[in-house]
Design goal:
The structure is a single chain. This protein has helices at about 5-25, 30-35, 105-110, 150-165, 170-180, 230-245, 260-265, 305-325, 350-355, 370-375, 375-400, 420-425, 430-440, 445-465, 470-485; strands at about 50-55, 60, 70, 140, 185-190, 200-210, 215-225, 250-255, 290-295. It is α+β, with helices and mostly antiparallel strands and about 500 residues long. The strands form two sheets. Strands 3, 4, 5, 6, 7, 8 and 9 form a seven-stranded mixed β-sheet that branches. A two-stranded antiparallel sheet has the order 1-2. The protein is flat, with a radius of gyration of 31 Å.
């Protein structure tokens, strides 16, 4: 195909390269040649060739062979800079696209790879609801459709990802951004002076959609350094969710390292993968050091109106609370000679008794015992006792967590990975749940209650696992250790 180009086609290609060089002056000519996919790299059906040659005849692997990558985040508030630094190793083979016997792979390869509409650059956000901050954003959904305007945006995105993700090889970024199976969403600056330049791109997400499987894989996500700490990371993700919900996408999936996890959690991602495994197996790979994260896209939520929705919900709740609350009732001021009758009241309860007779106290729901606990010596003593007991129980849990045999009991059992566990064990328990109950709920009123849950951990382990397994031995060690910890506790015999 490359040898059969007419002079006009050759001239158009050279013009496009010159335009790309003007947009990304920092890239060397050989780098641009090595990272820009020419029309020759695709056949008449738009599919990318297996391999492409650089100007220096160095052979490189194309995106059909390298399509999976974990991501790294430089988290700062809602600012996001992701980096796919863990590239596939040599012994990791790519998905064989010729293997059409696999139903999931066949569906994904035969279907149109873009679930979002054909890109229209600077497409406005249309919504009949009152204008909000998202309506003022300039943005575009672009892919490699061969149009000059799309290529300008893609080269700008390539430059942004290269600057914000310095550990990523530039050819790798370019191959994914310019791959026709991938699409990018970009937020654009409204400054006319930077139009059609790299500075026009404020932030962007590069993704690959699998419409037949109803999910999209996020590849790169970054915000320009000049526009960080301004909330563009959250706006970018919410806008992406908004467009995905319109096109039937149900899930986002990505691989994140430790720096990226915090950002994704803020954007509604979770480490628990609920999407059926058959929908993404064979399409993306797993990597050591990368944490798979997923986000469910609710089809009825307009993610560009989240703040308005929360405000409306809060106002609705407050209106109903105010209908029944008596805290806003205004009473007449107390007379100057107000002297409550507190005859026969002990000194410790004197303040509570004086407050109890003030008009409005009883109407607001206060009882004498509430006032005594809040104002009297008894209340202070009770708080001190609860604090001491909480510290005592936490110290016991920490001792258990520090033991070598406690590793299976520190976190809840993953019922996604072990689906039959919930059918066999009706009362699951683990050390992290116990610690949460102690810190937040004051659930345990005594050491006896704590011991019951600790023994429940060992019982569940023995019920589910075979006696010859290492888990069973850990449960036995836990029971023995609890016997020594609670040996001097009155009323407990193990």
């Amino acid at each position: 195909m490359g040898n059969d180009m007419t002079s006009e086609e050759h001239g158009a290609e050279e013009s496009l390269k010159r335009k790309a060089n003007e947009i990304a002056p920092d890239a060397a000519a050989d780098d641009l040649t090595s990272t820009t996919l020419a029309a020759d790299d695709f056949d008449d059906k738009g599919s990318q060739s297996k391999r492409s040659k650089l100007d220096n005849d160095e052979e490189v692997v194309t995106t059909e062979e390298v399509t999976e990558r974990p991501v790294e985040l430089n988290e700062n508030d809602a600012v996001v800079t992701l980096e796919a630094h863990a590239l596939p190793t040599q012994n990791e083979t790519a998905v064989n696209e010729a293997d059409a016997s696999h139903a999931d792979v066949t569906l994904a390869e035969e279907a149109t790879t873009e679930s979002f509409p054909s890109p229209s650059v600077e497409e406005p956000l249309v919504d009949d609801v009152n204008c909000n901050e998202y309506d003022k954003l300039r943005w575009a959904i672009v892919n490699n459709d061969g149009e000059q305007e799309s290529m300008i945006k893609l080269i700008g995105l390539k430059s942004l990802f290269s600057k914000q993700l310095p550990k990523m090889p530039r050819p790798y970024i370019a191959r994914l951004v310019l791959d026709r199976r991938h699409t990018s969403l970009a937020i654009l600056s409204d400054n006319p002076e930077v139009k059609d330049s790299d500075d026009e791109i404020i932030g962007g997400i590069c993704y690959r959609a699998f419409p037949e499987m109803r999910f999209a894989e996020i590849v790169f996500c970054a915000v320009s350094a000049n526009h960080q700490v301004k909330g563009y990371g959250t706006k970018l993700m919410n806008l992406f969710k908004y467009k995905a919900a319109q096109t039937g996408i149900e899930y986002f999936i990505t691989y994140a390292d430790n720096y990226a996890i915090g950002y994704f959690k803020k954007q509604g991602f979770t480490k628990t993968i609920t999407m059926p495994k058959g929908r993404y197996t064979g399409l993306i790979k797993e990597y050591d050091g990368g944490t798979p994260m997923e986000c469910y896209i609710h089809p009825s939520i307009n993610f560009t109106r989240i703040n308005e929705m929360l405000d409306a919900q809060r106002d609705f709740i407050l209106q109903h609370v105010n209908r029944h609350a008596k805290s806003r009732t205004v009473y007449e001021p107390l007379p100057k000679d107000f002297a409550p009758n507190v005859e026969g009241v002990s000194r410790a309860n004197l303040v509570a008794a004086q407050a109890f007779v003030i008009p409005g106290i009883q109407e607001a729901g206060w009882t004498m015992s509430d006032l005594v606990e809040a104002t009297g010596v008894v209340g202070k003593d009770t708080d001190r006792q609860k604090g001491a007991q909480r510290s005592d129980l936490l110290s016991i849990v920490r001792k258990v967590q520090e033991q070598q045999f406690a590793w299976p009991f520190r976190e809840p059992v993953d019922i996604i990975a072990i689906p039959d566990y919930a059918e066999i064990i009706k009362e699951p328990m683990d050390l992290s749940t116990i610690e949460k109950r102690i810190r937040q709920d004051n659930y345990y009123k005594s050491k006896t209650m704590l011991l019951a849950d600790l023994l429940l951990i060992a019982k569940n382990c023995k019920t589910y696992n075979d006696e010859a397994s290492a888990y069973w031995q850990c449960a036995v060690s836990l029971e023995k250790f609890l016997g020594t910890v609670f040996a001097d506790t009155p009323g407990i015999n193990l």
